[in-house]
C-alpha cells in the first residue's frame, strides 16, 4: 500500500477529492467503476446534486450535474427491486438501472424517487 502525499491534489482540500477507476476485462465482460475516497464520508463537502430521473420502459436512467454518492432508488409501494442500488453518480456518466418487477412505465414514473448521501445530513 502506498500513501498519498499531502500535496498530491495541489490546493484542493481532501474533502473534495475522490478517485474513480474502472476495470475493463479482456473478455468484454461488463465492467463496473470503483471509487476511493481520501476523507471519510462524514467529512466530505458534497454539493447538493441535481439528479435527473428518466423512466424508459422498465429502466430508470439517472444523471447528475455534480457528484452524488450512495444514490438510492425507491419505487414504493410497487413490488420488485432494481438491478442495482446505492450507486455513485458522476457528471456526464448516466447510470441505467433495470426494474425487476411487474410495474408499467407509467407506474414507475409516478412512484420512483431518489435520495443520496448529501440529502441525509
Automatic annotation (TrEMBL):
Ranges where the Beta-mannosidase Ig-fold domain occurs? 46-119
Residues annotated as signal peptide: none
Q: Name one Pfam family in it.
A: Ig_mannosidase
Q: What is this protein called?
A: Beta-mannosidase Ig-fold domain-containing protein
Amino acid at each position: 500500500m502506498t500513501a498519498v502525499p499531502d500535496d498530491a491534489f495541489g490546493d484542493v482540500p481532501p474533502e473534495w477529492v475522490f478517485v474513480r477507476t474502472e476495470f475493463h476485462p479482456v473478455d468484454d465482460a461488463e465492467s463496473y467503476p470503483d471509487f476511493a475516497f481520501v476523507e471519510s464520508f462524514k467529512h466530505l463537502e458534497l454539493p447538493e446534486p441535481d439528479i435527473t430521473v428518466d423512466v424508459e420502459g422498465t429502466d430508470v436512467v439517472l444523471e447528475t450535474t455534480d457528484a452524488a454518492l450512495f444514490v438510492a432508488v425507491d419505487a414504493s409501494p410497487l413490488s420488485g427491486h432494481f438491478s442495482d442500488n446505492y450507486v455513485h453518480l458522476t457528471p456526464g456518466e448516466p447510470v441505467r438501472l433495470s426494474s425487476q418487477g411487474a410495474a408499467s412505465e407509467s407506474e414507475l414514473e409516478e412512484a420512483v424517487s431518489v435520495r443520496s448521501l448529501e440529502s441525509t445530513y
